[in-house]
Amino acid sequence: MMGYLLVLYIIMVVLSDVLLCTWIPSTTTLWYFQGLDAVNSYKLPGWLAYLFTFLGTFASIVPINMYVCLEIVNFVQGRYINWDLNMYDPQTDTPAKCRTGSLVAEIGQITHVFSDKTGTLTNNEMRLVSLSTGESTYGFSAPSLKNEEVTDDEVQVQVDRNEQINPPRIPVKEMFRDLLEDCTKNPKVDLLLTALAICHTVVIDFDLDGKIQYNAEGPDEEALVTAAAELGVRLTATDGSKYTIETRDGTSTEVEVLGVNKFSSDRKRMSVVVRNTSTEEYFLFIKGADNVIYELPRDQPIAPDAQERLDDDLQAFSLCGLRTLLIGFRKLNEKDVNCWMDSFEKATKEIGNQRSIALDAAASFIERNIEILGVTGIEDALQEGVPEAIKMIRDGGIKLWVLTGDKIQTAINIALSAQIMDSTMTRILLDEHDPDLLKFQVKRILVGLAEVQQDLLEDEEGENTQGIDPEHLLGQTYHTREEDVQLLKKVVGPELA
């Protein structure tokens, strides 16, 4: 095809040159030239000058072939992507669809892949698989690793990826059989389930068959409310600010929701203040991240042995790749409730940033002296084929970054399960919140990397060489002040300062 285009190109250039040389002499007598003789300003003969002009004018005809071929190749490759059975999802009857053919050729140029976890690597179909009251653990869980040594340089994690990250789909009642047996003996279990059935923003709808459907802001809320219902504490109605809770013995209790202290990325918790319409008692139910709930002010500290048991269960759930939440409650008096409601109502009338500040202040007033009821572990299973796909990405030399809001242990185990990293890798943790301490942590890591690189150089040369001076590397990265050095000695030891 290229040969045909080249012949056409030569014909067009020669023909245009001949026609122009034939036409030019006839233009000297045209009236708009005012009878002036045409003056040849070219140093070359006219026909040769015109020849070079047309060579440049029609030169673009040759590369068009490349564009045409490229578009055809992209189109065909896009069709192959659409027809690829490995990219077909039989569950949803959804094939791959190439929407932009011009991007097909760029697939081979990818060097980095950035992904979030929930809904991308996972199914975003959550379910409650573990519960703990501190005294007892129910459902699916891993053994406690409280005796396992964990260091900053490498977190020792021992998990069975197939069984712990994606536990078998056992019905909730069967999974929590022990919990159902303990409900009659341990009132704390019923109170924990009641908290799950009340502390949320779920709205009830009914399907065509009259069955209850829970519509939640997030799948984790829906998972908790659904699990509580299957375990005998069932949310049966949401009428405005009133919830109806039905227990396993068939009795119904109505509670009025006086206010919701909503979840935010800064608060990392949510709580509801409710009134039991039968007993006129007031309660606060709360759920959130363990570090946040632990730090809430309280008159009496949590018993060390109770907190240790909860921490063990939190760590065990996290090492299974489960999303963990602490659940708590507080019995309120009418005076505190009225005081909180006044500040809460005033806060809702504020505008702009002042509104969120006032709402946080109102929530902080009531969210204190919390009694911990237990820990929940929610599973969000990996999508089918994720580990294999990620392994192929890694084998192709592509760097993969995954963003998640999970605890460190949870993130590490999901990364192991999804083949984002393997057990042979050295794990480097940056887990400090203070900027100065984080800088020192980075320095420490750089020193270790420099020492490893120096050892490799010595091994390659077979003799002791100067290699790389770790302090020189740090000097290039940070300009350390004397006060930084003194603080560094306190934090990471004088040998690394």
The CATH architecture assignment of the largest domain turns out to be 3-Layer(aba) Sandwich
Which structural class should the secondary elements be placed in? Answer: alpha+beta
The unreliable regions are 142-165, 464-468, 470-485, 491-497
Can you summarize the main beta sheet? Answer: 9 strands, antiparallel
- SSE pattern, N- to C-terminal: HHHEEEHHHHEEHEEEEEHHEHHEHEHHHH
Total strand segments:
13
Q: Give the strand line-up of the largest sheet.
A: 3-2-12-11-10-9-8-7-6
Q: Tell me, briefly, the overall form.
A: elongated
User: How much beta, percentage-wise?
Assistant: 15-25%
Number of alpha- plus pi-helical segments: 17
Transmembrane segments: 6-26, 47-68
Subcellular location: Membrane
InterPro entries: ATPase_P-typ_cyto_dom_N, ATPase_P-typ_P_site, HAD-like_sf, HAD_sf
Organism: Mucochytrium quahogii
Summarize the structure.
42% of the residues lie in helices and 16% in strands.
Characterization of the model:
The protein is of the alpha+beta class. The protein folds into four domains: 2-61, no CATH class; 64-109, no CATH class; 127-379, Calcium-transporting ATPase, cytoplasmic domain N (3-Layer(aba) Sandwich), CATH 3.40.1110; 430-497. It has helices at residues 2-23, 46-57, 64-83, 161-165, 172-175, 177-182, 187-198, 219-230, 290-294, 304-319, 334-348, 353-366, 386-395, 408-417, 435-461, 470-477, 482-492; strands at 112-116, 127-132, 137-139, 203-206, 212-215, 234-239, 242-246, 252-261, 269-276, 282-288, 323-332, 371-379, 399-403. Helix 10 (304-319) packs parallel to helix 14, helix 11 packs antiparallel against helix 12 (353-366) and helix 15 (435-461) packs across helix 16 (470-477). The radius of gyration is 35 Å and the shape is elongated.
